[in-house]
From TrEMBL:
It is found in: Mitochondrion. This is ribonuclease Z. It catalyses: Endonucleolytic cleavage of RNA, removing extra 3' nucleotides from tRNA precursor, generating 3' termini of tRNAs. A 3'-hydroxy group is left at the tRNA terminus and a 5'-phosphoryl group is left at the trailer molecule. Residues 68-137 are annotated as: Disordered. It comes from the Eukaryota. Residues 72-91 have a biased composition (Polar residues). Residues 92-114, 124-137 have a biased composition (Basic and acidic residues). Homodimer.
Length: 908
């Protein structure tokens, strides 16, 4: 019997700046770029300038088999550029923003030294000195408020309700003010989907300070920072001291002075005042107070009460929102009888101000001329995550007494419960709910009814159409099976109570003003649109798509041996030897997010899931919403299994669209493996990322080990000798000088752990002839300009995943923002001899499909969210592209500018 040899066949390559006189040069921008000067041929060697040196971030995963050879065509920068699309008109609009005029661009391309920068990338932006990076010190907005005529309502924003990955958000709306409660991942994408404007947000409140409630905060703040000329200043409120988390965001959020952290209820607060109401906001239109709920014992059998250490994330908050009373109707006859003439004094009395009579020597008070006042509506938001929190809630009786009973001093109109169904279903909790007589209870915790309607309907519609055309690359979304739905716990309300309850739905409203509309409003709740209806609409729109779907299916029925000769490979073998006996259980690439800058209706931000099946998995970048995308692709249980099987996560660089989904993934893994023996997950990335993760660690344990990526290529250790990591230039850190010694006593154990997990993940199967059949190689570029170091690393790659942010006509903008065009990305792949090229990281100006020239994409395919490329199907990949173009034939013109609300250029 043959034994399986242990092969260390997985390598990672991290490469970036070296030998720069200023070590902070590189990480001050965290934008990859190149020093290429585009003449008549693509350079194969790096041209170093005495004043600067910069390589891109990229990674290379590979097996140990020797790379196959290609005779690919070299990169030709003089190929035709497609200028026929209307999106090219946007180029002129962005010149001032990019900081590059046409004249200056021509100068830079002719003589980079004369222009003061290396051709092919924007040095000013790379060094963080462009216009978008300038610090601002914005003042809080001052709005004129009118409590009498205002319109107000609370609305459930369904973030997380279909994927159960975050806590739902709630919007408190006024004419001139917006308050958001909880900002979980996907909030801004939800708001973009449903055209909810974020530009008037004044305050963000967190019911708990953890990844579940605050994971969307960095992305939301980035969006607000790019709103208008100067950005927007926002207050962020939360229990305990989370200021250090906001401070940590300053490393990747520009204009950080706009964020004002408002912490309340420190951990060492006087226990005698623990249950007091804390007044947070008190203006003309609303008063917002908070009651802290601190669990006094852990919800686990592993810890004793005296061993329990309270963390900031353990504290929960009950928020009370009180609108002012509406004064009674003004009695004109009484005013006249008291000697008042018509004029401004009438308004002052209506606003509660006493005035002197015009004809009599008396003071006239508001009660003298106004009818009975109408109490203002009151809304409670309750986040009670555990039974221990509920016990604390019961101790808050003194603070809530005024709201209890049949004739309370203050009547509560609506209670929104963010508590889990486990808590809501308890009889004690329902008894507490019944104390708010006449209140409408909206149950917004994760439950069965909440998952019936996909939140991102535009994305779900595109996914259904792609699945119809090519189910092999676009599997049906992993929406919740009946078995998973049964495992959910819908609220069960005791029939003996008089409780008025309703399950929360996306965009459900409760009107507060005007008084005539007080109550629930379901008119905005989206309707269920199933796949059948979507496909019927597709067939009416593009009748020929039915035949196209059948033709795509035929591509898999052709004998693989008949497609080995492909003309664009100069009659060389088209299928590399590593794929000859590949199985469907070897490698799969799942593109979870394929957009840049910020999420849109159709594309989430960067994340790539490398599924090694029984050997585990790896994440390359982890933008906001990555967990939600995993759940949409694999279903709730499947995503949980995927997270548990993660071997490591590699973050290319510090931009919010590449790493802000990390904390949520780590927190879920921690919870899933809480009672299972396991090792902390290894996270590899630039040192600056550690500061952000350390801040989160103070809030909640993320159960991780961080490895500075420069240590993976440090020639002073033996890590490279293992062939797990390809030798590359060291990644410098602004936290340590480049020549400072590395404390290997701290680094070595983590490196050894990484060796083990990668060795285990790379253990390949053996073919009939005793060969290792997993000789594949995946290269991921991260964000970059075309770069010779990347070409070198990608030699003979099975798959190159390369960013292609801009269409070919926008090369100036690509240089200004240190990104690549479609043709440039393909040129890198061709020069490297990559077998297949997958383009991703598209500008959100292309809402559904980017602009491309099909004539030179013979080994390339465009990525879409949830696209799943199994290595057994790589030979078919480029052949699907023409059919994708047919599917989106009516949407190749960029005409949906409103899909992206003020994209923050600093995040691009």
């Amino acid at each position: 019997m043959n034994t399986m040899p242990q092969i260390t066949n997985l390598r990672l390559l991290f490469s970036t700046a070296t030998n720069h006189p200023n070590p902070s040069f590189f990480l001050s921008s965290f934008k990859p770029n190149s020093l290429l000067k585009f003449n008549n041929k693509f350079p194969t060697k790096l041209h170093k300038s005495p004043s600067s040196s910069s390589y891109p971030f990229f990674t290379c995963l590979a097996s140990s088999r020797k790379p196959h050879r290609y005779n690919s065509k070299s990169f030709n920068p003089n190929r035709r550029i497609n200028t026929g699309n209307t999106s090219s008109l946007k180029q002129s609009d962005n010149k001032e923003e990019s900081g590059l005029s046409s004249k200056k661009m021509e100068l830079e391309m002719e003589d980079p030294k004369k222009a003061g920068m290396a051709a092919g990338f924007n040095k000013k932006r790379a060094e963080g000195r462009d216009k978008s990076s300038r610090p601002k010190d914005l003042k809080l907005k001052v709005r004129r408020l009118n409590p009498v005529n205002t319109i107000s309502y609370v609305q459930v924003l369904g973030t997380g309700m279909d994927t159960q990955d975050t806590s739902p958000s709630v919007l408190l709306f006024f004419d001139k003010q917006r308050f958001i409660f909880n900002a979980g991942e996907g909030l801004q994408r939800f708001c973009t989907e449903h055209k909810i404007k974020l530009s008037k947000i004044d305050h963000i409140f967190l019911s708990r300070v953890c990844s579940e409630t605050a994971g969307g905060l960095p992305g939301l703040l980035l969006t607000l920072a790019g709103t208008g000329e100067e950005g927007i200043s926002v207050n962020v409120w939360g229990p305990s001291d989370f200021k250090y988390l906001v401070d940590a965001m300053k490393s990747f959020i520009p204009n950080a002075a706009m964020v004002h952290s408002r912490c309340f209820g420190a951990l060492d607060k006087n226990p005698e005042k623990l249950h007091d109401q804390l007044k947070l906001i008190d203006d003309e239109v609303v008063k917002i107070s908070a009651i802290l709920l601190r669990p006094n014992c852990p919800e686990t059998h592993e810890l004793k009460k005296d061993e329990f250490e309270l963390k900031s994330s353990d504290i929960s908050v009950l928020y009370i929102c009180e609108l002012p009373e509406i004064r009674g109707k003004f009695d004109l006859e009484k005013a006249r009888s008291l000697g008042l003439r018509p004029g401004p004094k009438y308004r002052e009395l209506q606003e509660g101000i006493s005035v002197k009579s015009d004809l009599k020597d008396i003071m006239v008070h508001p009660d003298d001329v106004l009818g009975p006042s109408v109490p203002g509506p009151i809304v409670l938001l309750v986040d009670c995550p555990t039974l221990s929190h509920f016990q604390e809630l019961l101790l808050s009786t003194s603070s809530l007494d005024t709201f209890y009973g049949e004739t309370p001093n203050k009547r509560v109109n609506c209670v929104i419960h963010l508590s889990s169904a486990l808590i809501v279903n308890s009889s004690d909790y329902q008894k507490w709910m019944s104390r708010f007589h006449g209140a409408e209870h909206i149950i917004a915790g994760h439950q069965m009814k909440n998952v019936e309607i996909p939140i991102l309907q535009s994305s779900a519609r595109v996914a259904a159409r792609l699945n119809y055309l090519c189910p092999q690359f676009f599997p049906a979304p992993g929406y919740w099976s009946l078995e998973n739905l049964k495992s959910s716990m819908p609220p069960v309300i005791n029939e003996d109570t008089d409780l008025k309850t309703i399950s929360a739905e996306n965009l459900l409203k409760f009107h507060l003003r005007p008084l005539a509309q007080l109550g629930l409003d379901k008119s905005s709740v989206p309707k269920i649109v199933g796949p059948t209806e979507i496909i019927n609409d597709l067939l009416l729109e593009i009748p020929e798509i039915s035949d196209a779907s059948q033709q795509v299916g035929q591509l898999w029925k052709v004998d693989q041996n008949t497609i080995k000769e492909e003309p664009w490979l100069n009659n060389q073998s088209g299928v590399p030897s590593c794929l000859e006996e590949i199985t469907r259980e070897n490698v799969e690439i799942v593109l979870l997010g394929t957009g840049s800058s910020q999420p849109s209706k159709y594309r989430n931000v960067s994340s790539i899931f490398i599924n090694l099946f029984s050997k585990g998995s790896v994440l390359l970048d982890c933008g906001e919403g990555t967990l939600g995308q995993l759940k949409r692709r694999f279903g709730i249980k499947g995503a949980d299994d995927a997270v548990k099987g993660l071997k490591c996560i590699w973050i290319s660089h510090i931009h919010a669209d590449h790493h802000t989904g990390l904390a949520r993934i780590l927190a879920l893994r921690r919870d899933l493996l809480k009672r299972v023996a396991h090792d902390p997950l290894i996270v590899i990335g630039p040192r600056q990322l550690k500061r952000f993760l350390d801040a989160y660690q103070r809030l909640e344990d993320l159960d991780m080990q961080f490895l500075d990526c420069r240590h993976t290529t440090d020639s002073k250790n033996s890590f490279q000798d293992s062939n797990l990591f390809t030798k590359g230039s060291q990644m410098q850190s602004q936290w340590k000088r480049p020549n400072s010694p590395v404390d290997m006593t701290l680094v070595s154990p983590i490196i050894n752990n990484l060796k083990e997990v990668l060795k285990d993940a790379g253990r390949g199967k053996i073919g009939n002839n005793g060969e290792n059949i997993n000789g594949w190689k995946i290269v991921y570029s991260g964000d970059t300009r075309p770069c010779p170091e990347l070409i070198k690393a990608a030699q003979g790659a099975t798959v190159l995943i390369h960013e292609a942010t801009f269409e070919d006509a926008l090369v100036e903008e690509a240089i200004a923002r240190n990104h690549s065009t479609t043709e440039e990305a393909i040129g890198v792949g061709n020069s490297a001899g990559a077998y297949r090229i997958i383009l991703t990281h598209f500008s959100q100006r292309y809402p559904k499909i980017p602009v491309f020239d099909e004539s030179y994409m013979h080994k390339t395919c465009i990525a879409f969210d949830m696209m799943s490329v199994n290595f057994a199907d790589l030979h078919v990949l480029p052949r699907v592209l023409p059919y994708l173009k047919l599917l989106f034939k009516n949407e190749m013109i960029v005409d949906e500018a409103d899909d992206v609300e003020n994209v923050a250029t600093a995040a691009a």
